[in-house]
Specification:
mainly alpha; 3 helices; 0% strand
Length: 83
């Protein structure tokens, strides 16, 4: 049972990291004088989300792995958007 709980907690952490990344990207405004700060926050959220998703992938079920793969693909797109 603890193993399943750890899988669920890891997956939920990955979901939360993904949501926070999306929120950081929604706040990006190239016209804003705070764009540099917003961009830095987006980079930090991206790096954190990548790490959390990689850790969750280790213990994830097959269904969770498919969702984590989707998150990873979206992170790759977001990373290219920031460059």
């Amino acid at each position: 049972m603890p193993y399943n709980k750890n899988k669920q907690q890891a997956f939920q952490a990955a979901q939360q990291a993904y949501v926070q990344l999306e929120e950081a990207f929604q706040q990006l405004d190239e016209e804003s004088p705070d764009y540099g700060h917003q961009s830095k926050e987006a980079h930090e959220e991206l790096n954190e989300a990548e790490q959390i998703i990689q850790k969750a992938y280790i213990v994830a079920s097959e269904h969770q792995k498919r969702q984590l793969d989707s998150y990873s693909q979206e992170l790759a797109q977001r990373k290219s958007d920031l460059i």
